[in-house]
Design goal:
It is a single chain. Helix content is 43%, strand content 16%. By secondary structure, the chain is an alpha/beta fold. Strand 5 and strand 6 form a beta hairpin. The protein starts with a strand and ends with a helix. 41% of the residues are buried. The structure holds zinc ion.
C-alpha cells in the first residue's frame, strides 16, 4: 500500500492537533503519535520493526510514522492497514507512514487481520505479521527515495530488471500482492528478507542496495 501525490488542506482545529492532507480522493485526518497506542506490546513491536529495518537495510528513509483515522478515506481504504503517503508542494508538503487507527489498537487485532491475508495467499508469510506491515511501509518509503534520487538510477534499473525476471514464473513463498508492480515487489521482498525466508531474489535486492551504497 502506497500513495503519493499532491496535497491540499490545512491543519489544527479546536485545540486538538489535527493533521490533514488531501490528494484528490485521499484524505488523512487526525494523525497521532504512536505513543497514543494503548497496547505496550504493539508499540514495542512497531519500534522493533523500525530499528530492525534500519540495521538490515542501512537506514530508515521515513521518520514520520503515525496512526490516523482511515474512516474519512474513500471506502476502499477503510480495510487498509497502512499507507505510505507523500505529496504536496513547499509548506503543504506532507509525507509519512500512517497506520489505520481501527486496527492498530492491540497486537492481537493487527495479527488477526494480517493472518487472514496470509491465508488468502495475498502477502508473503512471515514470522511476525505486525513487523511485516511496518517494514513493508518503510520499504515503500525507501523505494520512493530511490525513485527520486539521481544516484539511485542504477539501482532502480537493476531492481526493475529483477522484478521482471521474478514475475516470469510462479514464486512459491511469495504472495500475490508482490506481483502488482515493482513497488510492491520491493516492499514485500525486503519484508520477506527480514522476517520470512530470504531467497535469491530478496538477497539480490539487498545486494543491489549495498552495491549502490543506498
Ligand atoms: Zn504496499
Amino acid at each position: 500500500m502506497a500513495k503519493s501525490g499532491q496535497r491540499k488542506g490545512g491543519s489544527g482545529a479546536g485545540g486538538v492537533r489535527v493533521e490533514r492532507s488531501t490528494k484528490n480522493d485521499v484524505t488523512l485526518v487526525g494523525a497521532e503519535s504512536l505513543s497514543t497506542i494503548a497496547d505496550p506490546v504493539l508499540r514495542k513491536d512497531i519500534q522493533s520493526a523500525i530499528s530492525r529495518f534500519a540495521s538490515i537495510f542501512g537506514g530508515v528513509s521515513e521518520r514520520v510514522i503515525k496512526i490516523a483515522d482511515f474512516q474519512v478515506l474513500p471506502s476502499d481504504f477503510h480495510g487498509a492497514l497502512a499507507v505510505q503517503y507523500e505529496g504536496g508542494k513547499s509548506q503543504n508538503y506532507i509525507r509519512g507512514i500512517y497506520l489505520n487507527k481501527d486496527f492498530w489498537t492491540d497486537k492481537k487485532t493487527v495479527n488477526r487481520r494480517i493472518k487472514e491475508w496470509y491465508d488468502m495467499g495475498w502477502f508473503v508469510r512471515t514470522s511476525n505479521p505486525t513487523r511485516h506491515i511496518v517494514m513493508h511501509e518503510l520499504a515503500h518509503a525507501k523505494w520512493s527515495r530511490l525513485k527520486s534520487s539521481r544516484s539511485a538510477r542504477n539501482a532502480r534499473k537493476e531492481v526493475t530488471k529483477l522484478y521482471r525476471q521474478w514475475r516470469r514464473k510462479e514464486r512459491p513463498g511469495w504472495g500475490d500482492y508482490a506481483k502488482k508492480n515493482v513497488d510492491e515487489f520491493f516492499a514485500e521482498g525486503l519484508s520477506k528478507h527480514a522476517l520470512g525466508s530470504g531467497d535469491r531474489y530478496t538477497r539480490r535486492l539487498v545486494k543491489i542496495l549495498k552495491e549502490n551504497n543506498l
